[in-house]
Amino acid sequence: xxxxxxxxxxxxxxxxxxxxxxxxxxxxxxxVFAVFGNELMTIASFKQIRTRDDAHLDGxxxxxxxxxxxxxxxxxxxxxxxxxxxxxxxITNHVTKGLLDMNITDPTIGCSSFTATxxxxxxxxxxxxxxxKTNTCIVLTNxxxxxxxxxxxxxxQFIGIDPEGDVGGLMDKVTCLAATFTPLDGVNDxxxxxxxxxxxxxxxxxxxxxxxxxxxxxxxxxxxRLILDNAGSVEEAVEIAQSYDMHDxxxxxxxxxxxxxxGRSAVLEWVGAxxxxxxxxxxxxxxxTYNDDDAHIGEVEAAADWQVVTNFVLQPGxxxxxxxxxxxxxxxxxxxxxxxxxxxxxxxxxxxxxxxxAIVGRRTWKNDDNNGCTVHSxxxxxxxxxxxxxxxxxxxxxxxxxxxx
Length: 405
What we know:
The protein is an alpha+beta fold and 405 residues long. It is 28% helix and 24% strand. The protein is globular, with a radius of gyration of 24 Å.
């Protein structure tokens, strides 16, 4: 009987130890999930939807559904950021909790966008993103707390993912969490779309906009994120832009197009003097050109209700003192206006809008810059809040379609 009693006691001790260990594991797991829960669920959603094709300059395409609010309230509360270094620090401290260092690269991009109306009366926003072969992530967000859900596109090369290889293990996926803060274009569930385009300001050397007033700060892609999260109209998007100092990302200069479901659109530009002398980024001021108030830009623009943007500053006189040929993408700009004028600004649907993007894609348009391919083309329907998305000029294939409503 004594031996049996000892066996029972030993089993009880072992059971107690196992229960204690299990409790510690559960507590540890609970702590980890409490700290990293949204990030872990976001990483779990990350998946590849198109494989790379190096012969066609195709990078891989991924989709990521972001869980939680990704700390944008904290971002705004701290006054934003005034440099890529500060943005990296914010992402590292808040998103990756100090576990991963990141970097943002220096891009040279050439892009085209336009607004139009479909035959059914829907407001459309088309965009080509021209660059080198790279991996792309389509980012879905729904932060709640009165903010808008959105779908946007990010170039993973900008946050340090090797364009010559696929997103690999866990650390690569953790890095991709930063894509939430680096959108290049997108649309939200209020029907507001926005895109970013390089302007090559500053003469021979591109000079970034770097305003220095007492306003809070943002960088190029974080402005786009703020607009997608908070703007319910073009006017609200402009108010957001006017409320911050602009500090262009990656040592380059940009302008934006923003549009909404009413058909209203605007081009946002930060300019100083002329292209030949606009080399002090701190002296630039925001100028907004609306689609229904752009007679000062030109006769074609004055006569049209739609807008086009490529890679040069629209403001009159800006290039008067510049060498010939400094208006990057002017040929694409003119061609898109010709196509839209021929249609009266109306296209049948997203497919015909995509046909216009195909006309000025890298494979069909003369390559007057360093960009090797059109990484993606997208048509945002601002009325239905959808995105029709095509990778690297595969216009003859079924597009990816994302719906917000």
